[in-house]
Amino acid sequence: MKNSSNLNCNKKSWFGFVFCFILWFLLLCFVCSASFSGNNNNNRLTFIANYANSFIFQDSTSHSISENEENRVADSKDGVKQVENTTQLVSKHVLDSCSGRYIYVHDLPSRFNTDILKNCSSLIKWFDICKYISNMGLGPRAADFHGIFQNNISWFETNQFLLEVIFHNRMNNYKCLTNNSSLASIIYVPFYAGLDIGRYLWGFNTSIRDSAPIELAKWVSEKPEWKSMGGRDHFFVVGRVTWDFRRQTDNDSDWGNKLMSLPESKNMTILIIESFSQAETNRDFAIPYPTYFHPSSDDEVFQWQNKLRKLKRQYLFSFAGAPRPNNEHSIRSQIIKQCLDSGKKCKFLNCASGENKCDNPTYVIEIFQRSKFCLQPSGDSSTRRSTFDSILAGCIPVFFDSRSAYQQYIWHLPKNYSKYSVFIPEDEIKDGKVNIGETLSRISEEEVAEMREEIVKLIPRIIYANPMSRLETLEDAFDIAIEGVLERVEKIRKEMEGGKSTEF
Ligand SMILES: *[C@@H]1O[C@H](CO)[C@@H](O)[C@H](O)[C@H]1NC(C)=O
Ligand SMILES: *[C@@H]1O[C@H](CO)[C@@H](O)[C@H](O)[C@H]1NC(C)=O
Ligand SMILES: *[C@@H]1O[C@H](CO)[C@@H](O)[C@H](O)[C@H]1NC(C)=O
Ligand SMILES: *[C@@H]1O[C@H](CO)[C@@H](O)[C@H](O)[C@H]1NC(C)=O
Ligand SMILES: *[C@@H]1O[C@H](CO)[C@@H](O)[C@H](O)[C@H]1NC(C)=O
Ligand SMILES: *[C@@H]1O[C@H](CO)[C@@H](O)[C@H](O)[C@H]1NC(C)=O
Ligand SMILES: *[C@@H]1O[C@H](CO)[C@@H](O)[C@H](O)[C@H]1NC(C)=O
Ligand SMILES: *[C@@H]1O[C@H](CO)[C@@H](O)[C@H](O)[C@H]1NC(C)=O
Ligand SMILES: *[C@@H]1O[C@H](CO)[C@@H](O)[C@H](O)[C@H]1NC(C)=O
To answer: Residues of the signal sequence (predicted)?
Structure first.
């Protein structure tokens, strides 16, 4: 009797001990993850996060591209099995924070995405983008010739066309993935639409240009997931401007493909670097071009912001770009002339000259962080990647066309435009009515400082964090885009449930 009750008691206290130990271990994990800081931390947050994912969804790795990533998840999965029941409270908590935010990722045939990358040398007619595919689409690490970055681990030579790859990789590390589509609020279709059409824009007939979009539309609309909302909970991401996808006729001499006019695309939400027009009523929504900075922690962002606040800016304004001699509507030549005529007040980085420094993060960011204002005139189309490079460098953008930003990035840029940017109507430049240097000099030092502070505060919203890790509290361009799609689909869902039809 005695023995047996002793044993019983021992068993109980042993169990209690194990229970406490496990609880302590879990707590430690969370405390550790919260208190870690500094560099060298690519893996730390993903541990906790993937750890949570792996026991809620068991298999969140199916979309994973990196082998390391998969191994890490697999490892933590083993660890989780033993503590599953003691952590149910914790898991409930994590589960709740995802409620209403689950995303299901379609497992597309690789010909719609990763296979396209295999032939990377022929994706863009004018240059080879192969080297930019590295580091999950962020590109090679940027060399810091002049010591202008705070660290050399989070700056990359990122190419604007790789947004589709960056976004896909960010999604693979999204904390609320589900493999059960009936739990998902929205459905991501990882089609590399821009890289696909990039191959065929020059010298291919319309049937070749349209073939992948048509195949994709067929594939996705035949899936069971399509049925519940006719695809209106689906979305995809495009790293080229909308004009490449809006061909009106089947005449081979017309530009682009007809992705945007397929009935299936009309039901999906499209996130794109330049959209058709002011977006609320549209299906394509502009999201920021990728820049060079892809931080792995909040601290890196804070440090960069603090650095920018303290910088001395020697140039009143600057312009990085090339003239558009063949476009009679372009104001670029006037802008360049005004810059050159302004002497030391303006810095011109000529992107048309032989030694092109415009794709080099060091030169671009260095000039922008030495300038108070950065001119952002339209180029081949209304928007520019340079707008986001200038925000990243704390340089106040000067726009000449409302389609360059105000009508585009409605989720990412606040509506009080005049608090963080300057607007000079294009016509006034064309007519020679406005001297840019004089206009900008009239803005007081205090106003400039206030605008710069607004710009610096915008930085987290316009950068894409490193897909290999997660920011702790900050929301980046990816998070804000997802928020936007979730809200939009929720609205459509309510309307559909209420029997109202939505105008498209
Ligand atoms: C965990 O708890 C569930 C019920 O909540 C139970 O069915 C399951 O057997 C438990 N698993 C282990 C490993 O004890
Ligand atoms: C890769 O690109 C080359 C050159 O454009 C082309 O000839 C070849 O067919 C492409 N290969 C694939 C698999 O698409
Ligand atoms: C980054 O900096 C470290 C230490 O300063 C150096 O060892 C490393 O080579 C640098 N990496 C790159 C890509 O510049
Ligand atoms: C998916 O979720 C739905 C709704 O919760 C559930 O009824 C269904 O059983 C789940 N399917 C699988 C395979 O787990
Ligand atoms: C999700 O993954 C788990 C584990 O791999 C599996 O048991 C479950 O059936 C999957 N659900 C769906 C809907 O495929
Ligand atoms: C388009 O081009 C492909 C290959 O260049 C050719 O096989 C096809 O017949 C062409 N289609 C039309 C409609 O001209
Ligand atoms: C688009 O969605 C509507 C419902 O809103 C549906 O009736 C229509 O069939 C869908 N279109 C396609 C091509 O699935
Ligand atoms: C296609 O466009 C070209 C150039 O605009 C024009 O000359 C030609 O007649 C058009 N062909 C057809 C079939 O419309
Ligand atoms: C501009 O709007 C943003 C977002 O609505 C807000 O956070 C910010 O404080 C506003 N700035 C000023 C100077 O009013």
So the answer is: 1-34
CA angle 9, 14, 17 (to 5 degrees): 130
Distance 103 CA to ligand 5 centre (A): 14
Q: What is the predicted pLDDT for the residue at 23?
A: 55
Q: DSSP assignment of 93-124, as one string?
A: HHHHHHTT--EEE----GGGTHHHHHTGGGSS
pLDDT at residue 94, rounded to an integer: 54
SS3 155: strand
Residue 244 Cα to ligand 8 midpoint, Å, equals: 19
Atom of ligand 8 nearest to the CA of 254: 2
**Probe target for ligand 2 pocket from 119, 129, 130, 201, with the most ligand atoms within 8 Å of CB:** 119
List, for residues 360-383, the tens digit of each pLDDT value. Answer: 899 999 999 999 999 999 988 999
We find that the CATH architecture of domain 298-462 is 3-Layer(aba) Sandwich (3.40)
Tokens 């999604």: give the residue.
Answer: 171
What's the pTM?
0.81
DSSP 129: -
In whole angstroms, what separates CA 478 from the centre of its chain?
A: 4
DSSP 408: T
Q: What is the pLDDT of residue 35?
A: 41
**Segments of the chain with pLDDT less than 50:** 1-9, 29-84, 280, 503-504
Please tell me the number of the ligand nearest to residue 204's CA.
6
pLDDT of residue 88: 60
CA of 453 relative to ligand 9 center, distance in Å: 11
CB of 3 within 6 A of ligand 1: the answer is: no
Tell me how far CA of residue 170 lies from CA of 217, 435, 482, in angstroms. 24, 43, 11
Spell out the domain ranges in the chain: 2-99, 105-291+472-497, 298-462
- Residue 361 to residue 373: CA distance in whole angstroms: 18
Angle at 381 between CA 397 and CA 324, to 5 degrees: 90
Of all protein residues, the one whose alpha carbon is nearest to atom 1 of ligand 1 is 85
Instruction: Give how far the C-alpha of residue 226 lies from the chain's centroid of Cα atoms, to the nearest Å.
Output: 25
Ligand 3 site residues, Cβ closer than 6 angstroms = 141, 143, 152
- Ligand 9 centre to CA of 233 (Å) is 31
